[in-house]
Amino acid sequence: MFTQEPRDTTPSRARPWYRRLYVWVLAGMAAGAITGLVAPDLGDSLQVLGDLFVSLLTMLLGPILFCMVVSGIAAVANLRSVGKVALRSILYFEVVTTVALLLGLVVVDLVEPGSAMHVDPSRLRLSESVAQRAAAGTELDWTDYFTQLVPDNAVAAFAEGHILQILFLSVLIGIAIASMGEQGRAVARATERVSAVLFTVVRFVTYLAPVGVFGAMAYTTGHFGAATLGALVELIATFYLTSLVFVVVVLGGALLLAGLRPLRTFRYFKEEVLLAFGASSSEVAIPGIVRKLENAGVSKGTAGITVSAGYSFNLDGTCIYLTLSTMFIAQALGLHLSFGEQLMLLLVMLLSSKGTAGVTGGGFVMLTTTVSSLSLIPVSGVMLVFGVDRFMSECRAVVNSLGNAVAGLVISRWQGETRARELNAIMGGGAPGLLHDDRRLPVAAPLAEPPDTRDAASPNAGTPRFAESDPRR
Fold first, then answer.
1. What's the CA gap between 166 and 371, in Å, rounded?
2. Fewer CB within a 10 Å sphere, N or C end of the chain?
3. Digit-coded pLDDT (tens) for 96-153
4. Taking residues 261-290, what's their average pLDDT?
5. Over 70: is that where the pLDDT of 454 sits?
6. What is the H or E stretch that residue 201 is in?
7. Which residues contact 14 (CB under 8 A, 6 or more apart)?
8. What are the residues whose beta carbons fall under 8 Å from the beta carbon of 61, sequence distance 6 or more?
9. Phi/psi at 269 (nearest 5 deg)?
10. Separation of alpha carbons 301 and 294, rounded Å
11. CA-to-CA dists, residue 203 to 26, 199, 292, angstroms
12. Cα separation, 187 vs 200, whole angstroms
């Protein structure tokens, strides 16, 4: 629909390692952890740095996803392909999240990390903060899984950050613009220009990533401390190892089936993974993931729909967390759940993992909803994992982010938009646009940009120098 701007792929010298963003993010994480352990009070007071950084990145998340989905759908020549992307995404999400739930259930039954705790349920009481989160989950009715899709007020959806509602509104408007033909082109162009401005703001904000990650890590270690892990260290270790197995085996297997190289793919999204881990939030990685998918050749519509819908339907790390934590609580309280009861919990988790996407503290709310749904486990048992939830939320954020990045690539391959050879080459450092497939679905080309002076041979050529989390170039 729009003309493709030529790209200058003239090689240039690679920047030194100390000018790469991910190096400074790693340094910020290490410095924050040391600060929190050495000076806990100081570390605890630095929470504001982490919270401020997350707020800076997420303040534009709704408008960014809106612009990306609207312009992407408006640029697709055949609107039936939009429906195919949505249906295939939902099918993929359900399969992968079910595997994540089953994996967590199998591992926790084998390891039994809570069996040695022997906690008396009568001695557990919900704290005020946990009770508030529990209320957010227990007040959800099964109809809320559907009614929360449609916003009562379009402005409120953006103000409150309900990604699923924003996605619904974006799809409707994108389809309307595409159906208008020539009249809709001006709106589509304006939307893409607004998107370019928003991503420029995000690029500026990512320069502050090392400071934000430093504050978040200092608060985590300063507030909780290494000693707070105690008997729960086995649960945390089990969760991290299970997540690693899921990433390597399940996500890696999905990439292999799509003809893609897992290690190369994971390296391609390393900046977004580090941001998610350091900020303990998968939301901060969404803009970068969407842009890097586009950079690799995925259409705007596919990238926008899969990533934004995946934020609600494809929380792989949260699914692993749900089964591990629920069964850990049951084991710690000395409760033996039969195979049928575990299967019922699994079915509830398939719903609860989608129903609280817009709720603050969603992971812990999902856990509370699951525990309280069938009355098999006392809801007060969630207090056993509340103290270490922060340590697991970082891993949840990483797996959720990687899961959605992989979903975008797999769906694009399924759609026939991209070819494995081209994706592997670009993610390995090849310049975007040189391996164009003319048979790909027509998509909106990016706005004209300054010449790309990256080194096509560099392993980090797929991202800009220093501000590597911004994949616009």
1. 29
2. N
3. 999 999 999 999 889 888 777 766 666 655 555 555 555 555 555 555 556 667 778 8
4. 87
5. no
6. helix 182-206
7. 455, 458, 460
8. 161, 163, 283, 286, 287
9. -105, 25
10. 10
11. 18, 6, 13
12. 20
Closest CA to 124 of 339, 385, 311, 458: 385
Give the containing element (helix H, strand E) for 134: helix 128-138
- Cα 184-188-190 angle, rounded to 5 deg: 120
The Cβ of residue 448 has, within 10 Å, a number of other Cβ atoms equal to 9
Q: Rounded CA gap, 85 and 245, in Å?
A: 28
Report pTM.
0.68
Q: How far is CA 116 from CA 51, 112, 361, 377, 452, in A?
A: 36, 8, 28, 17, 58
- The answer to whether residue 8 scores a pLDDT higher than 50 is no
Q: Which amino acid appears at position 374 of this protein?
A: L
| Dihedral of the alpha carbons of 389, 394, 400, 406, in degrees to the nearest 10 | -160
**How buried is 80 (Cβ within 10 angstroms: 0-12 exposed, 13-18 middle, 19+ buried)?**
exposed
- What's the confidence (pLDDT) of residue 177? 86
Answer for the pair 372, 138: CB distance below 8 angstroms, yes or no. yes
Q: Looking at 92-241, which runs of residues are DSSP E strands?
A: none
Contact 303, 290 (CB under 8 A): yes
From the list 296, 278, 285, the residue with the least C-alpha distance to 409 is 296
- In Å, what is the CA distance from 447 to each residue of 5, 450, 472? 7, 10, 10
**DSSP element (H, E) containing 302:** helix 300-313
Residues 6+ apart with CB under 8 A from 92: 314, 407, 410, 411, 414
Q: What is the identity of the amino acid at 234?
A: E
Query: What mean pLDDT comes out for the span 318-334?
Result: 87
Q: pLDDT digits over 424-440, tens only?
A: 999 988 665 444 433 33
How far apart (Å, rounded) are the C-alpha atoms in residues 359 and 367?
12
pLDDT band of 455, cuts 50, 70, 90: very low
* Spatial separation of the C-alpha atoms in residues 20 and 50, rounded to whole Å: 20
